[in-house]
Specification:
The protein is of the alpha/beta class. The chain has two domains: 147 residues, 3-Layer(aba) Sandwich (Rossmann fold); 78 residues, Adenine-specific Methyltransferase, domain 2, CATH 1.10.1020. Helix content is 31%, strand content 14%. It has nine helices and seven strands. A seven-stranded mixed sheet has the order 3-2-1-4-5-7-6, sandwiched between helices. Strand 4, helix 8 and strand 5 form a beta-alpha-beta unit. The protein is globular. The two termini are 23 Å apart. About 2% of the residues have low confidence. Bound molecules: S-adenosylmethionine. S-adenosylmethionine binds next to loops.
Length: 277
Amino acid sequence: MAKPFLKWAGGKRQLSDALSHFKPPSFCNYFEPFLGGGAFFFQLLPKSASLSDINKDLITTYKVVKNNVSELIQLLSSFSYSEETYYQIRNQDRLTSYSKFTDIQKAARFIYLNRTCYNGLYRVNADNQFNTPFGHYKKPLICDEKNLIAVSKKLHHIQLDHHPFESTIDRIQKNDFIYLDPPYDPVSKTANFTSYATHKFGRDEQVSLKKYCDSLTQKHAFFMVSNSSTDFIKDLYKDYTIHTIKAKRSINSNAKKRGPVDEVLITNYPTPPYTPK
Ligand SMILES: C[S@@+](CC[C@H](N)C(=O)[O-])C[C@H]1O[C@@H](n2cnc3c(N)ncnc32)[C@H](O)[C@@H]1O
């Protein structure tokens, strides 16, 4: 069984039960425009899907897993594990030679850093240089060969694109299902869930996303959005069905705030009542 091959901030593994419950009973094509680690895609495993994200290195990595998995595995399994190797690999994007890296080299580096950095956190500085510190894991599984091969097979008929969420709109048709998991609206001024990429996702972007959802409704497509349960989000989507669920956030700058918090799932179609397991 193929499962997510990356750790990703805001990953939806722990909400899997609620997400399956609230998905539409049937749909045509599946779209996931905020892909990240793709936890819900790997749960659904639809035969055809369009997956995208604004993070170019992330999409390059998915494409390499899809198209060049053997070469990727060969290179990734040749990397040793130590703090010194970590920083050597991390610092490659500061060298001029990095522009000559092939996509396979970039993808192997991306997976290595993801599996060995602190909390799997993807963080870059203003020059788009990866700057998450070493994770100090005892024995991280860097190259999960079996899973990478299984994922590669599953991605065979899947469309992968590097673009902002709005770019999907023209391809969406009646009865398609779009799952939207944007960077969260911060629950407090110190919560920094929005720093996945150099692209900011603030309140203006949340409003644009809501307008995009309105266009999906006009097209008679089904959407489901996840977000934090802030007054701003609840007001923004007040014309839709809002379900509140508890989730444990795995990445928060403040360790004390890692307990269960309310999240919302918003849909533009009716759903049966939900009792958490
Ligand atoms: C909460 S994460 C998605 C997590 C994912 N559902 C998972 O299970 O791992 C949000 C993702 O949105 C992407 N993103 C941020 N701004 C975006 C935009 N304007 N358009 C498309 N993707 C964007 C980020 O790169 C990040 O991967």
